Amino acid sequence: MKKILILILIAVIFGGGFWVYYNLVYLGIPENISRLDREIKVKNERLISAEIIAQEMDLVAKLIERNLALSTKDSLAEDASMPFLNYVTGVLAELEIKLIAIEPKRRRTQVDHIKTPYALIIDCSYEEFGKLVTKLEKSERLVTVESFNVDNGFRKAQGYKGARDPEDHVIEMEISTLTLIKRN
Are 70 and 87 in contact (CB under 8 A)? Predict the structure, then answer.
């Protein structure tokens, strides 16, 4: 009988110990884990956002660096920048767009930047024109398409049947580069 009482007493002590542990210690652990998981998820989202912003800031810094002239007499700020003209003609050749004319215009100087316009006349399809604008937009230089005018040749096509491809159109466009001037 004494052994049974000792066994019951041990069972009650262990049972009470497990009950106390479960109710006072264990029940809070899953709540803490789920709370910490939510905090980790929020911190990870912030970290990913910060990494994306840091990458974009690097790209912006590189873009500014490539378009920053030390003065208005810098080669980057010339009226007809040969590297940019070479870039444009290279893109036109790559896209197989026929260049009819390209003419640098007089630059417009502001206090903190210089805008250098270029007039282009090209012969291409709408799809090729879209690819050209996309390439210019992705350029290392800050390029703006100021205006464009499409001559679809509708009036000419009514009069006679020429050797010209009906898909191609004469497009007059004005683009400009923006050069930032470093202030002393």
Answer: no
